[in-house]
Amino acid sequence: MQEDEAFIRRLVARDQAACRQLVRQHHGRLVAVARSLVGQAAEDVVQDAWLQAFRALPRFEGRSTLNTWLTRIVLNAAYSHHRYDRSRLTQSLDAVLEEGMPMAERFDRWGHWNDPLASWTADTPEDILGREQLARRLQQKVQELPEAQRLAWLLRDQSGLEFAEIAETLGTTPANVRVLLHRARLRLMEIINQFEEGASC
After folding, report:
1. Is 16 part of a structural domain of the chain?
2. In angstroms, how far is CA 165 from the centroid of its own chain?
3. Would you say 192 and 138 are in contact if contact means Cβ atoms under 8 Å apart?
4. Mean pLDDT, 10 residues at a time, over the chain (201 residues)?
5. pTM higher than the cut 0.70
6. Any idea what the CATH number is for the domain that residue 75 is in?
7. What is the pLDDT at residue 114?
């Protein structure tokens, strides 16, 4: 979507086609972000967030993208929904940064594989994720990720936010976001590798 001034003006004027386009493009992604914090209440939280967003649109100054702006509104709505203590996120972030790297035992001290990953039979990640059992296990693993890792992964790989935008949203640095994202991806990669090696997911 081109976030030009004309499109924003159409949104502010409540142009139905522009509003439908905005919701169609962002709703699914915002529900996934909310679900990571509030579970089954995600749809309700996002509905509340849409109401807040449309009320606030006349004050949207374009300092961030609509994508980032909407994500922040959803995160704040999710925190409010459960009277969420944001210090939990900071504690989760601190714990993840202090923990050891997942799959660390598979690397030597120079960063080379001790025990290489299995050769994957699928040609593309889409082929891998298309397998129903693996897809279910990956969804479960995403929910088991430490909260800060889960949010970093959702905001980067599912929402496409830039590292600086994610850092601002999570109240951390872009470098920490990269660490969180790397660890989340390694944990998910471990599940894919187990599947390819024939272990039960």
Report:
1. yes
2. 12
3. yes
4. 74 91 92 86 93 92 85 88 59 55 55 56 58 78 86 86 86 89 88 70 49
5. no
6. 1.10.1740.10
7. 62
In angstroms, the CA 123 to CA 121 distance is 7
Task: Kindly state whether residue 57 falls inside one of the protein's structural domains.
Answer: yes
DSSP label at residue 105: G
Cα distances (Å, whole numbers) of residue 33 to 39, 42, 115, 156, 186 = 10, 8, 34, 11, 20
Q: Which two tokens stand for residue 20?
A: 């439908």
Q: Residue 2 has what pLDDT?
A: 45
What are the two backbone dihedrals, phi and then psi, of residue 122, each rounded to the nearest 5 degrees?
A: -80, 150
Q: Is residue 201 included in any domain, yes or no? A: no
Q: Tokens 């894919």 label which residue?
A: 192
For residues 201 and 195, give the distance between their C-alpha atoms in angstroms, rounded to a whole number: 6
